[in-house]
Model the fold of this input.
Amino acid sequence: MKVKRFEAITIPVTDVQRSLRFYHEVFDMTVIENSDLPTVHFGHQKIIFEPSTDVIPMTLSFVVSDSMTAMENHLKNYFVTIISGPIEKQDVKNAQSITISDPDQHVIELISYQK
Done:
């Protein structure tokens, strides 16, 4: 079997509206209005937000097309704290990353591949 991509991932969140706003504003993901569960999408992938009172933080990695400088400026404009980076990825050639967290402390690594 050969997996082509993932369709959706579900993450627990304490405040659905706050998470929808964060992912829409910071990452420009589209909110799916007519979905059974609160969902955003980018490309063919979806992130589904499951309301929960007991959130165990997950780690997500996104590949971005922006430069490190542009990413840093964008995150600062939205008052998102950078946990680490930009750093050179040791396990990936010609890549840098910045790590942040969302409102529920899910860790998000933003990876930019240099040309």
Notes: The chain has a mean pLDDT of 90. The longest strand covers residues 45-51.
